[in-house]
Amino acid sequence: MLTGARVEDQLRGRTLRLDGISRHFGALRALDGVHIELHAGEVHALMGENGAGKSTLIRILAGLERPDAGSILLDGVPVPLGQPAAARAAGLRFIHQELHPVPALSVGENMLLDHPYPHRFGLVDWAALNKIAASALARLGLDHLDPRGPMSALGSGDQMLVRIAASLIGGGAWLYVMDEPTAALTTTESERLFAVMAELVQQGAAILYVSHRMGEVMRLADRITVLRDGVHIATRARAATDVDRVIADMTGRDLGGLFPARAAPAGQAIVLQAEALSSPGLVRADFDLRAGEVLGLAGLSGSGRGALLRAVLGDGPRTGRLTLGGQEVGRSPADTWAQGIAYVPRERRAQGLIMGRTIAENVALPYLTQFARAGVFLHDHRQRQLAQDLGERVRLKAASVSQACAELSGGNQQKVLFARALAGRPRVLLLDEPTRGVDIGARFDLYRLIESLRSEGVSIVLASSDLPELLGLSDRVGVMRDGVLTEILPASGLTEAGLLARFYHGQEMQA
Amino acid sequence: MTASLRRYGGVLGMVAIVAFFALSLPDTFLTARNLLNITQQVSMLAVVAATMTVVMVMGDFDLSVGAMASLAGVVAGVLFVQGWPVPLAVGAALAVGLVGGLLNGILVSFVGILPFVATLATLTIFSGTAFIISDGRTIFGRDIPASFSGFARDGLALGMVDGRSLALPNLTLVALGVVALVWVVLEHTSYGRRLYAIGGNREAARLAGIRVVQLRFSAFAFTAVGAAMAGLMTASRVASANPTQGDGLMLTGIAAVFLGMTLTRDGQPRVLASLAGVMVLGVLDNGLTQMRVDSYLREVMVGLIILTSVGVSALSQRRR
User: Fold this and answer.
1) Over chain B, what is the mean pLDDT?
2) 20 to 30 A from A174, CA-CA: which of A151, A433, B111, B116?
3) In this complex, do A338 and B209 lie within 8 Å of one another by their Cβ atoms?
4) In chain A, which residues have their Cβ closer than 8 Å to the Cβ of B203?
């Protein structure tokens, strides 16, 4: 194994050049003559709306797809195209939001899966294996991870860090392609990742960073490349650009402020009231929610934001008092949906959509009885009409409501979940990370939808790890820590920094 | 090309099988009498496969249907011996099916045992019970009332052919009725739509307000009552009841649903596709028997055909 210093010498000055990369799918132009240079020692952000060509570019880099035209040069030497092994040999490593660890094995075993295990007397030498893993972890300052511990005990953030550390074993890796790495991470986990990224760049690596999160990109990137409709729009140094410039490059239009102007709250009547509400992950929360109000829930992941939403939804056992318009709230999702509480879950694939079924079926799912003759026999026409109407309301882009959800983009899938939540004219809307992994155009639409629902008097609880989103949409923000709703503050006058300080209050400030 | 082969490959395969038998057995295979005979031969299997589809839609399955069919037949037979009138004995046998199904439902949905394990256990329980109450003997002859065994021999008269009357067998009518009922329930009611939603994504369905536990519970009852009915049909057809005569229905029933799944566009269980699967197996069995193919060899061939069609379907799906 190479020592840190020698790796640095070797890497210094490495460049990967993508030259005139084009890829067409029939008439669709996924990439058209894209030209990008990636230098060792830089964080290079790649931005663009969904469908701009980022994923295709990544697949070409990984050798999973062959471009129709163009070449990839490593320090001037062509890299064979369409061969994953060649990409690996060129020192490229890919970090996705969806990792596929082997949870039953230890951290160290997971790290050495691609390598021959060290042997001694014909048997696996566990001590040596753990030592190799530990030294890779130590190089990135990841001393909190134990190679002997089970992989299944780690959160997705730590699993990602383990993956990165594993890439150091055997040497050769210098260019990390990170696709939406923070989408599933908490703030703390993201900060750890950022520290590791800085360490990698320090050691001479390059990072191609793909993210929808503008704040991260502005903070981390040295240079920013924007793609739009498969065309390379611009590569600018971070210092020579700003958020508005990047958004304009991405969209070709001025969004005129991402967040809508907010009307005064529609009413003062209390709709939902919780007293000492407790559930797994939530400790004695007291709050009320007024008509036409957005209550934001802020906190680190695991702080109880999602648990509070699930307690209101009736998912799992709960204690304490919870009333909707003076009536006790039901204790199962079936009951609460019927009472007018609607829910957009955090994981649209695992918890949200029935991917193989149509948009219309997914929208009508919680209210099948209401859209059936005699409550039993399906009324397909009415269901489709409902999905059609709500689809327009949420600005869903689909060929037809009979399309399967699996065929939609992430943003449009999220819009189907919103359409479902609106199908029963809810009084209370529970939103868990509603714009996670959603491109900026769809995000723009969803923000306007949330504001328009609010102005109609719908009460909304919004749990989000995206602080600008929380502050831009909420009337009040509840701060959560370790399952406790510590305080509820008016959103006006709160800042991201102020919120972050409240999350960490009483804890050691991380990185 | 691949897509249309996948879409219509199963249908083409069916046509090929029928054409093969029609050419090999020119005088006997494609006759009205033989075709009606096939519908009667497969009627028990059709009932089991149709009701099995109900649980398979949710991604579950029920291994206890064969044992339940045997048990229901034996229960009716034992009650006949004790002099119960036919309608009461039949009702009691169906009630045993309902109770067995509710037991499966409780184990799978309320207790949370995997369907494979739960229904494997109830399979042996049902089977053992059938042996206990019948004392391991076959009930036949005068113990079986003529009105019960006569049901399977009768049918809806269709007219005379070659001087012999031709009838649509009662058992075929029962099977058609069950298939139609399951079709309405699965394709045209909110209940069926919910079952498909559970099969698609159980967690998402639950969070969208679907009562997953109750629905799984009830669906298992459906399947077991269907199995009991098939057991009674078998007993009526052979005018006897023994504690193993329905056992074969389980594997063939599941095989028929799997065969059917290769015919649907989205690869999901659909009751009409299951019926098509039943017909494929029924036609094969009938044709190969007429060609005097050895019954053990027949089993091997049926197994190979199931593997081929499911395998081709899986491979073409992977290539998409």
Assistant:
1) 92
2) A151
3) yes
4) 350-351
Distance, C-alpha A220 to centroid of its chain: 17
Model ipTM?
A: 0.85
**C-beta separation of A48 from A226 below 8 A:** yes
Is the dihedral angle over the CA atoms B193, B195, B200, B201 positive or is it negative?
Answer: positive
pTM of the model: 0.77
Cα separation, B85 vs A471, in Å, equals 75
Q: How many CB atoms lie within 10 A of CB A389?
A: 14
Pairing of strands A175-179, A206-210: parallel
**Chain B: closest CA distance from residue A308 (Å):** 15
Would you state the pLDDT for residue B2? 55
A147 touches chain B (CB under 8 A): no
Domains annotated on chain A, with CATH: 40-66+80-251 (3.40.50.300), 257-340+427-511 (3.40.50.300), 352-425 (no CATH)
Number of other residues whose CB lies within 10 A of the CB of residue A429? 23
Cβ pair B207:A338 closer than 8 A = no
For B193, the closest of A313, A337, A378 (CB atoms) is: A378
Give A335→chain B minimum CA distance, Å.
7
In the stretch 409-468 of chain A, residues with CB closer than 8 A to chain B read 420
Q: Which two tokens stand for residue B271?
A: 């009751």
* Alpha carbon A256 to chain centroid, angstroms: 24
In angstroms, how far is the first alpha carbon of chain A from the final one? 29
The whole-number pLDDT of residue B199 equals 94
Q: Which residues of B touch A377 (CB under 8 A)?
A: 188-190
Q: What is the mean pLDDT of residues A98-125?
A: 85
A376 touches B: beta carbon within 8 Å? yes
Half-sphere exposure of A161 (CA within 13 A, CB side): 30
Chain A nearest C-alpha distance from B317 (Å): 14
How close B142 comes to chain A (CA, Å)? 46
